[in-house]
Amino acid sequence: MGEGDMRYGSRYTPNNGAASSRRPAAAGSRDLPLWLVLDCRHGRALFATPCPRRAAAATTSLGHDLVVWDPFTNEQRRLPRPSSPLAITGRGFNAAVLCAAGGGGGGCDHRSCHGGPFLVALIWSHSPSPFLPHLPGATSARVYSSDTGEWSDTTTVEHHDVFYYLEDRSPLPCRSVLVGDTLYFTWSSTHAFELRLGGGQRRLSIVYGPPRPPPLIESSSPIFMMSMGDDAVLRCVEVEPEDEKLCLRLRLRLWSRNVDDNGVAQWIRGRAIELEPLLPDGALQTPWIPSSVQLLGAVEGTDVIFVGTHSPDHPAAVYMVQLNSRRSRKVFDKCTSVVPYTSFCIPGIDAASTSEGAREGASSA
């Protein structure tokens, strides 16, 4: 986050030795002011960029353009704006990108699908009036196909708790998770939205998170969902006190969502990992305050998460944490979200994989 005209931006940041030795095609464009990274998946990155107000008002209430970028080939594709009506309330929208085969088509290992067909899922919420909470609001979704160059029909779910976890200076939330052929969008501290893409159908529904802590220590931060492997299981990680009455130490609590043969889902409470020993010495200055820790991102399909720490008298930092090995290292200074980007390159005959992280942060960082 920045100031003035540069209120926000993204930075493309190498994360390991292999990535540093192989710079992206647009090496001079690592800083992307007013480009907000929404998602990275299957070798592509998705951004929202402001579009001219007049042009946007003529076709849709969506005040941003969506751009898909391949960092290694520097290929950019600006998507056509969805047709009206898109009754988007303020900044209440998000989007995700994925290989078209990842949306139920199958037949792709996503190691070399650069330039291939892709999908972009757009989701937005709208409410009839903030002064009439008894009236139901709704959340809708549409899917863009690069094969057809068109947006799908709208799928909608009605509900009363239209709420966005958005700070005044934050343009929109930045987290989606792909599990099998289903996308999950984090929306608030209590629920997310599930968009099923398989079977040629687009179906949207609400998914509620695990039980939250008591009101005394409840955080307004959004639920943090992730996938950790190929088992098609949605998982959730929460920061919780070791003792709910005496908040002396913090830990990470893992949950997994189990769906039985009848389609009934429930959250299964998993292991706990004490947080302070997980980070370098001195990283957690206020280990008794839940709000001093933020979960900023996760590497999809792995056990890697990004943890941000801050306190009134201590500089902020972001650590990459491996939950299984319990190893961590500092990777960034202060930022508001981390969206990991992974790509596989095959130079000549030898195959080499590289991994880089795209993060949202201050333009001066």
Question: Can you offer a commentary on this structure?
Answer:
By secondary structure, the protein is mainly β. It has two domains: 208 residues, no CATH class; 115 residues, no CATH class. Helices cover 3% and strands 45% of the residues. The strands form six sheets. Strands 7, 8, 9, 10 and 11 form a five-stranded antiparallel sheet that branches. Strands 2-1-25-24 form a four-stranded antiparallel sheet. A four-stranded antiparallel sheet has the order 3-4-5-6, with no helix packed on it. Strand 12 and strand 13 form a beta hairpin. The longest helix has 7 residues. It is globular, with a radius of gyration of 20 Å. The termini are close together. The C terminus is likely disordered. This is DUF1618 domain-containing protein. InterPro entries: Gal_Oxase/kelch_b-propeller. It comes from Oryza sativa subsp. indica (Rice).
Offer a concise description of the structure.
The chain is mostly beta strands and 365 residues long.
Oligomer: single chain
Mean pLDDT over the residues = 76
Spell the H/E element sequence. EHEEEHEEEEEEEEEEEEEEEEEEEEE
**DSSP helix count?**
2
Helix-and-strand structural type: mainly beta
Task: Please state roughly what percent of the residues sit in beta strands, choosing from under 5%, 5-15%, 15-25%, 25-35%, 35-45% or over 45%.
Answer: 35-45%
The radius of gyration computed from the alpha-carbon positions, rounded to a whole number of angstroms, is: 20 Å
How many runs of DSSP E, i.e. beta strands? Answer: 25
Distance between the termini: 9 Å
- Tell me roughly what share of residues is in helical segments: under 10%
Work out the count of structural domains. Answer: 2
How would the global form be characterised? Answer: globular
The largest sheet, given as strand count, sense and whether it forms a barrel, is:
5 strands, antiparallel
Region (Disordered): 1-25
Organism: Oryza sativa subsp. indica
Protein name: DUF1618 domain-containing protein
